[in-house]
Automatic annotation (TrEMBL):
Residues 959-1021 form the I/LWEQ domain. Keywords: Actin-binding, Coiled coil, Cytoplasm. One of its GO terms (molecular function) is phosphatidylinositol-3,5-bisphosphate binding. One of its GO terms (biological process) is actin filament organization. Residues 308-331 are annotated as: Disordered. This is Huntingtin-interacting protein 1. It comes from Culex pipiens (House mosquito). PROSITE patterns: ENTH, I_LWEQ. It is found in: Cytoplasm. Residues 340-543, 569-666, 717-776 form a coiled coil. CDD domains: ANTH_N_HIP1_like (cd17006). Residues 3-131 form the ENTH domain. The keyword Transport does not apply. One of its GO terms (cellular component) is clathrin-coated vesicle.
Length: 1021
């Protein structure tokens, strides 16, 4: 759609403020307004129409901000902005070349930025399925490539070129910041750094695209073939990483954008497993305030989504408890639902038809507006060009006039100069005669100074050639006078010093002669220049006259063309008004259709949403209950397995205790046996000692051996005792460990018991919730049945309303017939009195009846408004009678004016009758428009006042006349005017019918159509 004048003006202001010449970043609100303007205009034509008028080539700040604004428009504006901007690539290239010669920091930056914008436009032109924001859904890149490996190969090269331009721009900006020592927290620094934000937003998805494309290329092509791609990617990877690190350290970007982080090393494309570990870098932009979101949410291509069909009414399943399966019986759709679906389909068809018609009319109006605006721009340019030519011609004419006056003044002063020059020549001749007498005396001196005289002559020629006094006659006069005075002085000096210095006298004589010669040459030069100037002046005056006549002829042609264009503009404006009225009528019909379907659609959507949400919640609860039951079963199995493990541990513990007791008893038995053996051996030794005491020397050796054996046995016993103690300690430690494990198992068992109790409680709560949901489902079934009953009642009331409307229509038709019958009988009775028409008495009778009808019309109209437009019968009757009487009164009044003998009084009455006719037309216009219903009473009162004024004037006239006018002609005029009034009333009724179709709907529309059709047929009959 096209922009209105107000929207176009606001867009112009926003763009002008965005690209102002102040060295500060662009304000977000101006960028947002420009972006919204592209959506309102459905493209970038309006933006470029305003942008090309900005001083981009005169101010470097404006050019820099324009590049930033255009980048934002291409990213976030209407999808057609990239396509519409392609035709302006040449302007961007020329601007970059122009500012590229400037070395103040902005020039090189503008050059690189324009190159980046041209690359972006060409990239989107070659790849139209990639949007300007470079935001693609998952898998959309594969759908764009369609598995063509050649396409991916070429796309990778284009993305590399795109990233090269971004890297070059950011490097230039940072170099400018560093070179000119600009801080990022000042307005100048922020103005230079602000475009880096869209550069980061562009480079991030481009990096993601190229990584995925490189993996796909390496999966389908040999590695050697992609060596160049890998080298370019590696270089760009390090450059982008450096760019992101530099941007992340800027304080200015902290609250504006979260710059992504790249990995330490580039991906290894030769290993496809790295693709699974790859994570796309993410940019985080801060959320805008709610006001901004609300403003931007208004921007949409369509207000209503009419492509979506009406949602079906889902069937409600019957839910049972956990021990039964769910079952659902399909319900047979009611006839009301079928009728509702049919109405919805008709509504969708009507909406689609209206949308197509609105789109067609919008395109037509848009084309007309664009053509009109182009014509207007061309006319304005031609007017400005002609005005500049006219001003230039006037300036040249004034300059020539001044030159003419100067030349005339010089021509007047030239004769006096000539006389003075002749007088000076005579004086010079006299002086020369005196010098001739002295010539013979200085012959020898002249020969000695020949060389000096030649040099002096050359210098004099150079001075004469470089003289600038040739164009100024006054200056020449003064120079001649001064030279003559000097000549007299020099002559006197020569005469006085003649005897003293012959060389000086000769030099002075030569100087005087040379000066006289110079004066003569200057005079001749002045005369020749004056003649040349006079000839040039005459030629220039002739050329100016010719050019002036040509300009006047072009001006006349332009004025005639301008009048023709103005006429065409008026015709276009009238056609535009008709198109706009048709569009408004279609919009009203569209709103009526929406209002008509809103009531039925609202209840259907409510029931659908409630049933869907109920069904979803029941399914979710059922799933949760099933999950809890499964979880409970798993916990029960875990509990049983833990009990089995506990029993196994108890059995192992008992077996270990039995084994320990057995080993301990065996050790005790061994110890007892050793002690018994030891005691027996001691007893034996004692007996042997007693028996062999006598043979001590023989048994000493045996005794020593026995002592040694006893000592060894004692050591063995001690070691055995220590081993037994170690075994006992180890068993005690194992026993403690078993006891601790037993305690832990007891604690786990208790926690499992607690969890089981909690799960049982949750299960009970879920079962209760399920019962509540089943109860709610039953309530919803009851509400659904109630809604069906309400729909049936509405259908019955609709049928009753149709019957009532038909009866009201019949009553209104009868009222119209009765009113027409009354008017017909009145006309017949008036025809029986042919002499009464056109007389003041007849007019006064009509006026008196008309006053009464207008008073009743006021009352009936007030009742019509109070009853919400239901009492149409009385209003139609009074309107028809009133229209007939008003037409009769107007015709009779004009007839009386034309037949009046008093011309002055007749003219006054004619003026009043014309004003009465205007009030009549205004009254019927107010009756037709529902928006002016409140003003009907005031207009009836005004009409009555004007009717009374006409009545008084005709009454005064009737007193002055004798009433001998020709009544037959007046009756004929009255009948013809009555026919004309009836035709006008029929046309007005047709107009009321069209407006009623545009503003009313349903039964009211049918009733009004039948009423107005009946009235029209009666009036035409």
């Amino acid at each position: 759609m096209s922009l209105t004048d107000k929207e176009y003006h606001n867009l112009t202001i926003s763009i002008s403020k965005a690209v102002s010449n102040h060295e500060m970043p662009i304000k977000v609100k101006h960028v947002r307004a420009s972006i919204i303007g592209t959506f309102h205009s459905k493209g970038g034509h309006a933006f470029w129409a305003i942008a090309i008028r900005q001083p981009i080539q005169e101010n470097r700040i404006v050019a820099w901000k324009f590049c930033h604004l255009l980048h934002k428009i291409l990213r976030e504006g209407h999808p057609l902005c990239c396509q519409h901007s392609m035709r302006h690539r040449g302007m961007l290239i020329e601007a970059g070349k122009l500012w590229g010669h400037l070395n103040d920091g902005y020039g090189i930056c503008i050059k690189h930025y324009t190159k980046l914008l041209v690359t972006k436009l060409e990239f989107h032109d070659r790849n139209p399925r990639i949007p300007g924001s470079l935001a693609l859904k998952p898998g959309e890149l594969e759908r764009i490539g369609e598995g063509d490996i050649n396409f991916y190969f070429q796309l990778a090269v284009e993305i590399f070129d795109y990233l090269d331009d971004i890297v070059a721009l950011q490097a230039t900006i940072f170099n400018s910041i560093t070179t000119f020592c600009v801080s990022s927290m000042t307005s100048a620094g922020q103005c230079r750094l602000a475009p880096l934000i869209p550069c980061v937003q562009d480079s991030n998805p481009l990096y993601d695209f190229v990584v995925r494309i490189m993996f796909k290329l390496h999966a389908n092509l040999p590695s050697d073939l992609l060596t160049g791609h890998r080298e370019r990617f590696r270089t760009l990877f390090h450059q982008l990483k450096s760019f992101y690190n530099q941007s992340r350290n800027l304080q200015y970007f902290v609250n504006l954008i979260t710059v992504p982080k790249l990995p330490d090393a580039p991906p290894n494309f030769e290993q496809q497993s790295d693709l699974g570990n790859y994570q796309a870098p993410v940019i985080v932009m801060p959320d805008s305030d709610p006001a901004d979101n609300d403003t931007e949410s208004v921007v949409s291509d369509s207000l209503i989504d009419t492509t979506e069909a009406a949602p079906p009414i889902p069937e409600l399943p019957h839910h049972h408890n956990n021990h039964h399966q769910q079952s659902a019986a399909p319900q047979t759709p009611a006839p009301q639902l079928l009728e509702l679906e049919r109405l919805l389909r008709e509504r969708d068809d009507l909406i689609r038809h209206l949308q197509m018609e609105i789109e067609r009319l919008s395109n037509y109006v848009k084309s007309l507006t664009i053509e009109q605006r182009d014509v207007q721009h061309r006319l304005e340019d031609q007017i400005a060009q002609l005005n500049s030519h006219l001003a230039q011609a006037q300036g040249e004419l004034s300059t020539l006039r001044i030159q003419k006056e100067e030349l005339e003044l010089r021509a007047q002063t030239a004769p006096t100069l000539e006389q003075k020059a002749q007088a000076e020549e005579e004086r010079a001749k006299a002086s020369e005669e005196k010098f001739q007498k002295l010539k013979t005396m200085y012959t020898q001196i002249r020969d000695e100074h020949v060389k000096l005289l030649r040099q002096h002559g050359e210098v004099s020629k150079q001075l004469a050639a470089s003289s600038k006094a040739a164009s100024d006659a006054t200056k020449a006069k003064e120079e001649v006078r001064i030279q003559l005075d000097e000549l007299h002085q020099q002559q006197a000096v020569v005469q006085e010093q003649l005897q003293q210095s012959s060389s000086e006298s000769r030099r002075e004589q030569e100087q005087v002669a040379e000066e006289l010669r110079q004066v003569s040459e200057r005079y001749e030069t002045l005369r020749s220049k004056y003649e040349e100037m006079e000839a040039n002046r005459q030629a220039e005056i002739a050329e100016l006259r010719i050019s002036l006549e040509r300009v006047q002829g072009e001006l006349g042609t332009f004025q005639s063309d301008r009048e023709v264009l103005q006429a065409e503009k008026g015709a276009l404006e009238s056609s535009l008004g008709e198109v706009q009225s048709e569009r408004e009528q279609l919009n009203r019909q569209y709103e009526e259709v929406l209002a008509k379907m809103e009531a039925l659609n609202l209840k259907t959507e409510e029931y659908t949403k409630e049933e869907a949400s109920l069904q979803q919640s029941v399914q979710e609860k059922s799933q949760q209950a099933q999950e809890l039951v499964d979880k409970l079963d798993r916990l029960q199995r875990d509990y049983e397995s833990l009990q089995q493990q506990h029993a196994d541990l108890e059995a192992a513990k008992a077996a270990q205790e039995q084994e320990f007791n057995r080993i301990h008893e065996e050790d005790l038995l061994k110890l007892d046996s050793l002690q018994g053996e030891l005691s027996e051996k001691v007893t034996t030794l004692s007996a042997e000692k007693d028996n062999l005491f006598a043979v001590k020397e023989d048994t000493v050796q045996q005794l020593l051996l026995l002592q040694t054996e006893s000592t060894q046995r004692t050591a063995d016993f001690d070691s055995l005792e220590k081993d037994l103690k170690n075994v006992i300690e180890q068993k005690d430690h194992e026993l403690e460990e078993l006891r601790s494990r037993y305690i832990e198992m007891e604690e786990k068992y208790q926690s499992l018991d607690a969890n089981m109790d909690r799960l049982l409680a949750e299960k009970g709560a879920i079962e209760s919730d399920l019962q509540d949901l089943l109860h709610q489902q039953e309530e919803m079934d009851a509400r659904y049945q109630t809604a069906l009953g309400t729909i049936r009642n509405l259908e019955n009331s609709l049928a009753d309303a149709k019957i009532t409307g038909e009866s009201a229509l019949r009553a209104l038709l009868e009222a119209c017939i009765k009113s027409s019958e009354k008017l017909t009988l009145r006309a017949i009775s008036e025809n029986e009195m042919p002499g009464a028409g056109g007389t003041p008495t007849y007019f006064l009778m009509i006026a008196e009846e008309l006053q009464d009808v207008l008073s009743k019309l006021t009352i009936v109209h007030d009742n019509y408004l109070k009853d919400n437009s239901t009492n149409v019968e009385s209003l139609a009757r009074k309107v028809i009678i009133g229209a007939h009487l008003l037409a009769s009164a107007h015709v009779q009044g004009m007839s009386i004016c034309n037949r009046s003998a008093n011309i002055e009084c007749g003219e006054r009455i004619a003026e009043e009758v014309k004003q009465l006719g205007g009030s009549i037309a205004s009254l019927f216009q107010s009756l037709q428009k529902t928006s002016e219903s409140d003003a009907v009473g005031e207009k009836i009162i005004d009409l009555k006042d004007k009717l009374q004024a006409v009545t008084d004037m005709i009454g005064d006239l009737s007193k002055q006349t004798d009433g001998t006018e020709n009544l037959g002609d007046l009756v004929e005029n009255e009948l013809s005017s009555m026919d004309k009034a009836i035709e006008e009333a029929a046309a007005q009724i047709e107009e009321m019918l069209s407006k009623s179709r545009a503003s009313d709907s349903g039964i009211k529309l049918e009733v009004n159509e039948k009423i107005l059709d009946a009235c029209t047929n009666l009036m035409q009959a």
